[in-house]
Amino acid sequence: MASRQAIRIIAAAATAGAGIALAAWAGASPFAALLAALGGVAAYALAVQVERPAPAPPEPEDEEDEPAPLPGIAELLRAVDEPLLVVRDRRVLAANAAARQLLGAHIEGVDVRLAIRHPAAAERLAGPAGADDQNRRTELVGIGDPGRHWAMAVTVLPDQSRLVRLSDLSAARAAEQMRVDFVANASHELRTPLATVLGFIETLQDEDAGGDRKTRERFLRIMFDEGTRMRNLVDDLMSLSRIEAERFTVPREPVDLMPVIGEVKAALGQLIEAKQASVVVEKETPDTVVQGDRPQLAQLLNNLIANALKYGRAGAPVRVRLEGAGGEMIRLSVIDEGEGIPAEHLPRLTERFYRVDTGRSRAAGGTGLGLAIVKHIVLRHRGRLDIDSVLGQGTTIRVYLPRALAGHGVQQ
Questions:
Q1: Cβ–Cβ contacts within 10 Å for residue 288, how many?
Q2: 106 domain-assigned
Q3: How far apart are CA 319 and CA 239, in angstroms?
Q4: Which residue, 96, 187, 241, 276, shows the most beta carbons closer than 10 Å to its own?
């Protein structure tokens, strides 16, 4: 390229010199000779202009200037509900709405160690991006709330910035804790009556105790009661397991609740007589047909009415009321006149093995699973469960169930 440019410059100079010499030889006027010289100079300038190199690219930005994230990253962040951040050189370049809500609206542009105030996050994000970032998750506890659990995953982008994703593990951890508590509670509930049964068996094997008829009868009665309690607990556990297994299958059969209430009332006759109470059915809607699973609805009614009888005031009636609740739902209410339940216990009544009064519940023969079963039956039927209670007046449990679809035969 340089030799070509030199040739053109020499050619231009030669042209200018030839023009001057020719003009002088021809005796032209000084003005003509000047024109010839200017033409040579113009040729030279043209040659230089043609070969002028392209302008140099702009100098790179100062490293201290804030780098911009990859094109389109803002749209990606907005489209994701989980907290996402783009981090480069320990600074947060961009954050989506979920991240700003969790960590604060000020986090963009600040040091990531100030944005995610957690030692494990600071240790991982403080160093340079590496290949190991892609293959591991870091669990963070306490961000946003002391009891929340998060998993931090990091992806290295082509420009060596990092995409930091925070996944909320709180629900999974709570479910795992519920499973652990459930196993522990179930084991305890089974172990207690079993220990009683085994203890009395050992006592009866002793000749002195076994020879006393009254003692033997009393021990056998206690053993029978404890064995019945274990059987009821196992039955409730199996029932709850079946209901949960069917939770994604919506029952479609129409069921008239009035005959079901009559059957449950008859089945609870001994308890009604023992409590010297009564079950009063109040039908306040002509349509009592719901869409459901008849055996499960019978179990729901049995649990609710039995609880109302056990914990209601002796001699007081238990009312079972059926009402319309809009065009698509029927409201079933079971109302007792017992002591009532303190407000702080109401949100936890449907938890497995949760009891307001453990001693009273066990004395009444409860397994601690009745309302948990009711809740899962209601959820499977796509209904709703409400519990209200007033101390000294009683408790009302309302179940909202969907009406049966038109054109279906009713299960009696």
A1: 22
A2: yes
A3: 26
A4: 96
